[in-house]
Amino acid sequence: MSKGGMWAKSIAGGILFCIGGPALVQYIRPTDAELVSRYNPDLQKRSAEQGDRKAQEFDDYVSKLKEWSKSDKSIWYAAQEEQEREKAQRAAERARQKEESRIQREEMRKELLGDK
Questions:
Q1: What number is the average pLDDT over the span 23-49?
Q2: Residue of 29 and 46 predicted with greater confidence
Q3: Domain-embedded: residue 15
């Protein structure tokens, strides 16, 4: 076979793989609606109920990423600082609740001792 024929076959094969492969994958890939229709009814119901919540969580995460990217620090450090800040807030909230319950117990104890 001549060099020109070999080049033509190689180019045709390359084009077939580069264009035909993704086209075939796109053709056989099911849409989201087809996937959901294959679910059993319980999963369809759960998916419908949780869809909005998951979309909102994703939007919140993307907005946090945008906020973190505005920082001059790396996104990873900004995310870590955010997690540490949230952890500190949760610890402060637990301490506040613990203090409130302690005060409430003391008041109840005083009431019981004062009545006797």
A1: 87
A2: 29
A3: no
DSSP letter string over the chain?
--HHHHHHHHHHHHHIIIIIHHHHHHHHSPPHHHHHHHS-HHHHHHHHHHHHHHHHHHHHHHHHHHHHHHSSS-HHHHHHHHHHHHHHHHHHHHHHHHHHHHHHHHHHHHHHHHH-
Q: Which domain does 110 fall in, by range?
A: 74-115
Output the CA–CA distances (angstroms, integers) from residue 8 to 20, 34, 98, in the order listed: 17, 40, 79
Do the domain assignments include residue 110? yes
What is the number of domains present in the chain?
Answer: 1
pLDDT in tens, 66-75: 888 888 888 8
The answer to whether residue 111 sits within a structural domain is yes
Compute the distance between CA of residue 93 and CA of residue 51 in angstroms, rounded to an integer: 31
Asked if residue 49 is part of any domain, the answer here is no
